[in-house]
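Q: what does this look like with pyridoxal-5'-phosphate bound?
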Amino acid sequence: MDKHTQLICDPRQAPMQINSLQPPVYHASTIVFDNTKALFQRHWSDRYDYSYGTHGTPTTYLLADQIARLEGGKYALLTPSGLAAIVLVNTALLEQGDEVWVTENMYSPNLEHLYELQKRYGVVIKIYNPLDATSFQPTAVCKLLWLEAAGSVTLEFPDLQGLIKIAKKHHVCVALDSTWGAGLAYSPFDLNGISVDICVHALTKYPSGGGDVLMGSIVTNDETLHTKLRRMHTLLGFSVSGDDCARVYRSLPSLALRYDKQSKNAIELLTYLKHEPAFAQVLHPANPDTLGHQFWQQNCPNGRSAGLVSVVFDKRYAWADICRFCDALRIFKLGFSWGSATSLVMLYDLSKMRTLPQAHLCGRYVVRFCIGLESPKDLIDDIKTALGSLNYDEKSK
Ligand SMILES: *Cc1c(COP(=O)(O)O)cnc(C)c1O
């Protein structure tokens, strides 16, 4: 045989299996069938369908099964980003004229996708108050309830159990964005015996842990529901790369260590932030002053929380001051996302994001700190220095 043909028709003489600690990484678009019988017997709904790269490889299934275990569910799908997981759920479950219930403190691109479905297909969007389950009043065409615990930016922890109970009574599918909880702060499929139907997780955050991978997951316990979501997954052509899966897989064993350390660092910061006069309010579910604190206690009995803490700036500060504050930070980097070793900061003008009155917040300018693994003392010094650059004389207040 010609050596160029041999370079293509690799005889693969070296034994292909070794017991490395980390599993091998498969890269595949084409997957070769043994024969025509195997080709015609394939079906996309097989639990492990190795017929084309988009359907999965041993590497993607290995990670998916670990994520299902992490969330306490049976089946998992992996998507190219956390947002892709959300979009898949919306697309698979909502038809023309269906009703979906959301909150204003939800991850905003989810809302944007739903408004797009509203515009195109007349999907009806209704807004409930995450702290008052009675505000959720599904009608006969309600198909989906979105939950997010804790809420984005302002971190209110919702009445998960109260809301899920109402949804179950009306046979409404419950999807929870559990990115904040990371499969550690609470158990989506066993909240004091109550369970969500779908758990969406941006693996981009804590499971990746490096700030360098985009991935999402959708976990369920129900085979019919999983198959429905899996069909849409196949139709949309969503796939993830083996290398990205290997990165997340490798980070999972240290997930709890990192989560707890970032959580502990955030609590240390919380104590300082509460005494800092520049901040009118400090938002964190473990802070008794934050709305939903009792629901956090109820659903997170191990006292865990993500390393996110937000502050509402005192009213004397203008938007330009908030910008200057963020620009003056040195250890905190300005950027979206969270869950890596690097602490991040992001600034928000709530009046541009929310339409309902935010009576529980005493200002509109919010800065969210995403705490990494640096020393909390260094992070506090960074904030103090940045506040100092605003040149306000505290005594003249
Ligand atoms: C980041 C995030 C997402 C989206 O994840 P991406 O991988 O960045 O698309 C969804 N929900 C929540 C709560 C998030 O924080």
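The longest strand covers residues 142-148. The mean pLDDT is 95.
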